[in-house]
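Appendix C: a fully annotated inverse folding record. The material below is reproduced so that readers can follow the format used throughout the book. The structure is listed first as tokens, followed by the designed sequence.
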């Protein structure tokens, strides 16, 4: 069944789910040995919470910093705020104190709903939290609700809202720059829900494993049962694969959305223990390019399911998607540096390529805009459609840099580069900011990293550019698997040989070894190449022979 339109906010959709299937399990959380709540019970809790928020003074349009534990607390508090028409501000706690404080300062919350640590933290940094007038500590599920405030909540209806209303501010992870608050409209969330239904087949018969906290907010609106994975959202790379797989089996999981690193953990654990997961219908991997080797392993683990690789960003998600069949077909070209396929565009979204440009793009009435339609010409990926959010909160300059009008539509510059291959498939080559402009031409991360990652001894690698201005010297940073670190000289020699064979024109001479290559806090998959480049540029400046 194809769903063509959706009106109302997430609370309205949740209410409909609760009315249609009141006794169905809505959420299963790892607290207290995976306790569960029905749609009816959870919606009652949300109404109680919203009523409490009203009595505390939270009203429509209030910006509220939301920092609670993933699971029932997050669902309850977020939907309670949306019920009031308030705007939750969602920031990754793992991004570090300095970045966190900058995000809070620019978003100007008037209140905090958070764990006691965050509430107490706000008193220490009074300048950052100067706009905050209301603080509501959340110790555990529903514990912030004072009995004297619950009153007659049964007939308490959610605040009416329009499709063009801001419904949330969600911060980017800041993997290639400063974290920015993305302004989500109600229509953006509705477009995402329609895509989950129409493109990926998610429906009320599914049981979804939640590994990224924010995705627990879509499932109640879809009537889908959420099982919260026992994972620290700040450190998904440290997740226990045995625990994840046991949860999938014990709760008959049919669907999951996770980062490539979690997908690889599931695939490796199942392969090593001869486990298959026949009841899993779909696995969605996003956050960074997923190796075809991981996709291949996973397809054997879920023989009756599909593996989807959605493409997008916090500012526009999903834009398109590929699947295990397309990845299998293009496996060799991906592994030899021709880029990952971005697959099939989501309905009602339009993707174009434009010439790479560092400065803001002119609007069509200011200057003629050239698009790229030819094969094998690298350009910037841009998208327009209902999934594109309104812009960055409190950052008009950044919003202008990322947006332009073409053919009457506002396009978002994804910050990624790619090209159309001979079959007119859009191929992803990496982040624009992370490409290396050398004196011999441009080199993108996806051109070379998959080739080096194919070495069994390599955990991950990164292409970086040494130098403060263009042209830069291309270099490779390598993180070795722990059991191969003692034999690093032989491995480095083999990598040098490969680089001479495949990339002789770029004259890559330096290879650096890192114990741990830094990655983003949200997915633990996006490599912080720019910070690596900055650090190694300083080191080479002091000791020129490094890496040679």
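Designed amino acids, in order:
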């Amino acid at each position: 069944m194809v769903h063509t339109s959706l009106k109302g906010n997430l609370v309205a959709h949740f209410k409909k789910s609760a009315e249609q299937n009141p006794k169905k399990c809505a959420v299963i959380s790892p607290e207290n040995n995976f306790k569960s709540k029905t749609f009816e019970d959870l919606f009652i809790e949300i109404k109680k919470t919203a009523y409490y928020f009203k009595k505390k003074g939270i009203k429509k349009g209030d910006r509220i910093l939301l920092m609670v534990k993933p699971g029932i607390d997050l669902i309850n508090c977020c939907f309670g705020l949306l019920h009031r028409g308030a705007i939750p501000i969602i920031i990754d706690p793992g991004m570090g104190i300095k970045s966190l404080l900058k995000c809070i300062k620019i978003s100007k919350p008037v209140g905090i709903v958070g764990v006691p640590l965050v509430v107490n933290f706000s008193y220490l940094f009074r300048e950052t939290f100067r706009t905050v007038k209301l603080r509501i500590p959340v110790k555990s599920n529903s514990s912030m609700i004072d009995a004297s405030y619950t009153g007659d909540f049964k007939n308490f209806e959610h605040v009416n809202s329009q499709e063009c209303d801001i419904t949330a501010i969600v911060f980017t992870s800041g993997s290639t720059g400063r974290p920015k608050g993305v302004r989500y409209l109600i229509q953006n969330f509705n477009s995402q829900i329609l895509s989950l239904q129409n493109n990926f087949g998610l429906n009320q018969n599914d049981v979804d494993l939640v590994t990224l906290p924010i995705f627990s907010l879509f499932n109640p609106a879809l009537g889908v049962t959420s099982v919260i994975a026992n994972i620290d959202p700040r450190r998904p790379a440290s997740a226990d694969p045995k625990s994840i797989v046991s949860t999938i089996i014990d709760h008959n999981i049919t669907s999951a959305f996770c980062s490539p690193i979690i997908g690889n953990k599931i695939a490796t654990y199942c392969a090593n223990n001869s486990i298959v997961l026949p009841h899993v219908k779909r696995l969605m991997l996003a956050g960074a390019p997923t190796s075809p080797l991981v996709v291949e392993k996973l397809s054997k683990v879920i023989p009756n399911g599909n593996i989807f690789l959605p493409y997008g960003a916090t500012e526009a998600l999903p834009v398109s998607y590929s699947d295990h069949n397309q990845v299998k077909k293009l496996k060799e070209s991906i592994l030899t540096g021709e880029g990952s396929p971005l697959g099939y565009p989501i309905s009602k979204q339009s993707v174009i390529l434009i010439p790479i440009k560092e400065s803001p793009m002119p609007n069509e009435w200011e200057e003629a805009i050239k698009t790229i339609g030819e094969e094998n010409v690298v350009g910037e990926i841009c998208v327009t459609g209902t999934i594109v959010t309104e812009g960055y909160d409190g950052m008009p300059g950044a919003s202008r840099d990322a947006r332009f009008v073409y053919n009457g539509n506002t396009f978002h510059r994804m910050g990624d580069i790619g090209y159309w291959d001979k079959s007119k498939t859009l191929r992803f080559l990496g982040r624009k900011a992370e490409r290396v402009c050398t004196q011999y031409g441009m080199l993108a991360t996806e051109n070379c990293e998959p080739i080096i990652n194919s070495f069994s001894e390599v955990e991950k690698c990164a292409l970086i550019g040494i130098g403060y201005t263009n042209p830069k010297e291309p270099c490779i940073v390598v993180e070795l698997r722990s059991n191969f670190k003692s034999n690093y000289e032989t491995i480095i020699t083999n990598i040098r040989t490969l680089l001479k064979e495949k990339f002789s024109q770029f004259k890559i001479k330096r290879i650096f070894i890192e114990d741990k290559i830094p990655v983003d806090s949200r997915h633990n998959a996006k490599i912080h190449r720019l910070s690596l480049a900055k650090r190694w540029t300083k080191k080479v400046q002091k000791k020129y022979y490094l890496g040679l």
